[in-house]
């Protein structure tokens, strides 16, 4: 069965520091991996995805994520956090044959000034 | 591109009343998803459609919930009768056939008193 784990409910970072939001997954076959961001009272916004190719994927707002097959991880990263990055972040996975995404529980990122 | 459109944005109703939520997916997208988000349970997939056909409704909590997609540009999620525990934010998302990422609407905040 497919599953996604986001081990941290909350990540706190000072503005200007690098940030990492962790995600691990379990899926049969090759995974399709996604990151979404949700701001208060808004829908989820697509940030980036990994399907195949380069293990380092670049997305919106300066975010990137690194696919690590041996560790079954897809951590979200940004070199320098902004206060405006504070939001709820979701990791999601599906297998090649599927359509529906399995979402993690979400990680709240708080960036302090 | 208008994005996924949902209506109403807010709905307050009394227990026992029928509630209908509406969604217009992005033109050209052939998959449509209904989700429910609560603090307690996070983001839950209720049902999804491919090419207007329901594929997986295992997430629909009870027979009180039903969803339809009469054409490629419109879907409804109906709750009859509504109960206070149905209070949540309901999201609709759509996805193009071969790219995987989903695009979410702004959500409908439902309050059942």
Structure description:
- The complex is a heterodimer of chains A (113) and B (113).
- Helices cover 0% and strands 53% of the residues of chain A.
- Chain A is mainly beta and 113 residues long.
- Chain B is mostly beta strands.
- Helices cover 0% and strands 55% of the residues of chain B.
- Chain B contains no helices and eleven strands.
- In chain B, the strands form two sheets. In chain B, strands 2, 4, 5, 6, 9, 10 and 11 form a seven-stranded mixed β-sheet that branches. Chain B has a four-stranded antiparallel β-sheet with strand order 1-3-8-7, with no helix packed on it.
- The mean pLDDT of chain B is 94.
- The A-B interface holds A 32, 34, 36, 42-46, 49, 51, 90, 94, 99-101, 103, 105-106 and B 4, 31, 33, 42-43, 45, 48, 50, 55-56, 91, 93, 95, 100-107.
Q: What is the residue-averaged pLDDT of chain A?
A: 93
* Proportion of strand residues of chain B: over 45%
Please mark out the parts of chain A with pLDDT under 50 across 5 or more consecutive residues, or reply none. Answer: none
Strand pairing plus helix content of chain A: what structural class?
A: mainly beta
For the record, give the distance between the C-alpha atoms at the N and C termini of chain A, rounded to a whole number. 41 Å
Mean pLDDT of chain B: 94
Number of contiguous helices of chain A: 0
> Rg of chain A from C-alpha positions?
13 Å
Query: What is the helix/strand order of chain A?
Result: EEEEEEEEEEEE
Question: How would you characterize the largest beta sheet of chain A?
Answer: 6 strands, mixed
User: What is the straight-line distance between the termini of chain B?
Assistant: 36 Å
Helix content of chain A: under 10%
- Cα-based radius of gyration of chain B, to the nearest Å: 13 Å
Helical/strand content category of chain B: mainly beta
